[in-house]
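Morning!

This is the sequence you dropped in the shared folder:
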Amino acid sequence: MKTKRCYYGKLNYTEYKLTKDMDGNLKILTQDKSKIDDTFVDKYQSGVYTKVVEPNELKDCVKIQVYGDIQGKKVEVLKERNDKYQVSTGSLLIGEELKLPRIDRDTWLGWVPKSEVKLILEETPFDPKRF
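The structure's back. Tokens below.
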């Protein structure tokens, strides 16, 4: 399961990941060659194909965020490694209770065994015109 926040939308009933470029253009991207045609470009020859689209071309846009539940406490899941998740919280109470190292005034961050984390997938619809 992905552990990062991602934005998705559908173009012609096909789902793509969404991003913006440095010029503010809304782009769809994929590594799946079966989802592309000659209007997509692989600008850096990296295997990632992109296409500039207009917001009104997209349907069913959602923001996906994955959180973790540890002992009933909600934490942010940042990274995944073999048998662990890197989790973070801004809550003193949660950070101390879970024995996470304090790395900043308001941040507790640490690696937790996957077996202790229940992943929660949160999908929120959004308007691509406001992306």
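Headline: The mean pLDDT is 94.

More detail when I'm at my desk.
O.
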